[in-house]
Fold this protein.
Amino acid sequence: MKIIAANQNAIEQAATILKEGGLIGMPTETVYGLAANALDGKAVARIFEAKGRPSFNPLITHFGRARDIEPYAEMDERAKALAQKFWPGPLTMILKRKTNCPISDLVTAGLPTLAVRVPDHKAAQDLIRAAGVPLAAPSANPSGTLSPTSAAHVARTLGDKVDLVLAAGSSRIGLESTVIDLSTEQSIILRPGGITPEELEETLGHKLHIAEQSDDIKSPGQLLKHYAPKTPLRLNAVDLNPDEALLAFGSTKFMGIKGGGAATNLPEDMIRNLSETGDLHEAASNLFTMLHDMDAHNHRAIAVMSIPDIGVGIAINDRLKRAAN
Ligand code: TXA
Ligand code: MG
């Protein structure tokens, strides 16, 4: 497996690999994806094999522009309004699949719906255009583990299962896209992300239903334990056990260590701060990167300070809960 900077020459190499049925580590603004030609069932099967992903869990298909989706899925008025407002960007829509849609049934796990997204990242856009086909791409990590926010994460966790990784720095948003199901009359948020329910409601002009664990069956991926580091996480920590590392949010001035001591005196490798100023967007972009980093140190446990459950904080808490259970 090779990692190369996502310049024009690298994009052309990657496009050739995709046309031949290979897998590419693709940078996007959310997390790195593991991309294959969505029309090539054999290539898509390799994605499931590389990730150890159950075949009932469908994949997102990535397009260059909203109008490129036309042959594949039904864009109703809601979808058009959201596309206009949020694409390219971190929003995935579940739409009705068109009859004769040539996308592999493996991508959709046999469902009558298709998940679509137009990523806001130059390398992803260049790759889609050069390949000339829609790209199926889940996050580029083994199933159930932390999503990758750098090319190095992809290389470390998937190794030779990827043919080539395009490197383009850290993912700007750092959390997977918001997933909204528009395949039925009721619009439902299946996965919280950087685009909040309030923003979506404002564009749609109506209230959204937010899927609970119990109706998660609508988004098969949400059923699974997810985003988990190897090190156990303890959430909403207000103080520290003596051998715990700290993933902080905001000021650590008042964090004490049981039995004596203050968090501010922890050795450098035992503390990371998602955002010292309490900025939720900054925290989202640091979450997976810091968890990857802390997970490499073999701490006994990681205590995580509480994150306000508002705006993108809802998506951060969703990922943390899945990582902790
Ligand atoms: O930001 C992202 O969305 C990244 C980048 C690479 O685009 N991709 C990503 O893919 O997070 P993945 O496979 O890790 O998550 C896709 C989620 C899963 O929970 C899956 O179950 C759900 O979308 N999904 C895909 N197709 C679906 C469908 N037809 N109906 C319901 N849920 C679907
Ligand atoms: Mg994933």
